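Weekly puzzle thread! Below is a chain. First person to post its structure in token form gets bragging rights.
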Amino acid sequence: MAQPPPATMRAIAIRDGGWRFEEVPVPVPGPDQVLVRTHAAALNRADLLVLDGSYTVNPALAAREQPIAGMDGMGEVAAVGKRVPTTSVGDRVMYMATSAFADFIAIDHRLLMPVPLTLSAVQAAATPSAAITEYDALIVQGGLREGQHVLVLGAATGVGVLATQIAHYAGAATVIGSSTDPVKRTRLDRYGVHVAIDTRRPDWAATVLDATGGHGADLVIDHLGGNALVQALSATAVGGTIVHLGHLAGRHAEIDLDQLGRRRVRLIGSTFRTRTREELFAIAAETASALRPALTEGAIAPAVDRVFPFSQAEYAAAYLTSGQAFGKVVLDFA
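Winning reply:
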């Protein structure tokens, strides 16, 4: 028999532009929610941007009004609301939702993704946001088709590593990934990358053209922005698509609109910050269904760089900020 939840729990509250450990009440799930006992939670760069006010969380993802940090988690269902149709106490689930940095989270059951038995708690915690973001960018927004050439800018990030694998799994003919770190570039081939490039080199767009027989990338997934996005236009195939997701290299870019039009490139901006609850429910369900076989078989797996105890969350944030991580940084709640 499952152990009932306690009255209070540990949580990382967002206070005065920083994180603070607090003891707060365990949430009571509503009729459409489940209560999840957290086993692990992953850090995202967005967690850090929230602190300086440069990232606004979608209210549709909010698990509670109290400002608790975290957007990615995994755990075991501890209680179920009366209108939840299929989820049961004891189920292993992962999710993209706010308030993940706490011992318990009450979350709408339609945001849950089942955890394959082949994934550990740490791996599962590192999966939801990256999988949903990159599946949506590649398949839904980008319309990736088998045999196309894909370029992932920022491929060594937690989301980038999932993007390259999803592209490979979906049948991309060529997967090109970027990193400015030479050691990280040597690791990308384990995650579906055929050609690794350094966007600090002025000729990197030419390398993409060479790798694709002069064709260019049919689909570019851009986590960098800035000048990398400008240069990506030269690396994109005529009639190709760029899906812009992040701006690690800068929030502003001066684009040659003549080049954009001449090459007939579609430039799509994508985020979950402005999507409705129904849209979030739909993409979570579609991603879970489409990627479950690959996750179960191990064809797709997150790269976890380091695991920190929950009590050392601030050290984990500092490590992520340092830029050393290849893939995800995860908090262990054991």
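Puzzle host: Confirmed. Bonus trivia for everyone else. The chain has two domains: 8-127+274-332, 130-269.
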